[in-house]
Amino acid sequence: MEVIGFFIKEMCSKREETIQFPVSINNKTAIKEIEEIEVKTIGKKCLKVCFEFKTEYLHQKKKMGEIKISGHMLFIHEDHKKILNSWKKKKTLPEDVNVFLINHVLRKCITKSVSIAEDLALPSPIPLPVARIQKKTETKYIA
């Protein structure tokens, strides 16, 4: 199981003029379509997996902003025919394949959406680490 290519086709982002707080942030990732293609450079058939990643910023159900990234990735799997048939029949994927693909999209798109959110003065779509001053504790030696 391997992703051999990741391609962003479209990035759209917007925010309202005034942001009202508190803001709830929802990240959604979806597999939109799957098709079999041949990659001539490697001489193999693989799956072209189309995806959409979206971060929505809401205040009391009113949209304050949105970041949307869509594209496709090229995916190689030893049972790609079985995966393709499952998708064509039920629009579902085996759980391990679905988790693998969604995690790949998240890794690629979350990093981009953090940067876009900063440019739009929106909160980060994921919590970022924060440095804090540590309180000094006394070390006591008890013999």
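(ticket continues) Second input and output from the same batch:
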Amino acid sequence: MKKIYSILLFAFIATAFISCNNDDDNNSSNLNNELLVNGKTYPLKAGALEYYGNESGNHSSGLILVTTEVNENEEAEDEFFNSIFFEIFTSERTIGTREYKFFEGELANTFSDFSEIKIMTETEDMIDIDNYELTAGVLNIISLNPYEVTFKGKARNWDDETDIVDFEGHYKGNLYEYDYSEE
């Protein structure tokens, strides 16, 4: 009986230990159409993919995700909203499903330091806008129709270089598509 008790106790402890390890190792978030900046979550409601043209031998596109509904004329439903913008460089005209890493400059299959986050905070007597320049991270484009993207990284406040924040997010849905290459 003592042997059975010891075996059951060992099995229970091993199971509990393995379960805890799996929980600790799972660093993926449960964000669903949300942007998380410095611990605060914002819902992502719409987005656009803008093509700018071929610059320096690379094609330049912008992916913008916002916390408001947007119509086909790029007009926001809400006056105040938050956004995350990635300037993506590719070797092909269109973006593809892949991982894009941060790079300071214009290199194919990366997103650049022109990428940013804008967070608006409305108080009683004013609107405060924090602009953050993306300084590190990864953008994963999982699918194109509908679009699904995940992203994670660090950003620095334009007004206070010591204000470094973590960001991450997920968006799945349609994107408005615009071609500004001829303008």
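Agent notes: Residues 31-179 form one domain. The two ends are 83 Å apart (CA to CA). Closing as not reproducible unless the customer responds.
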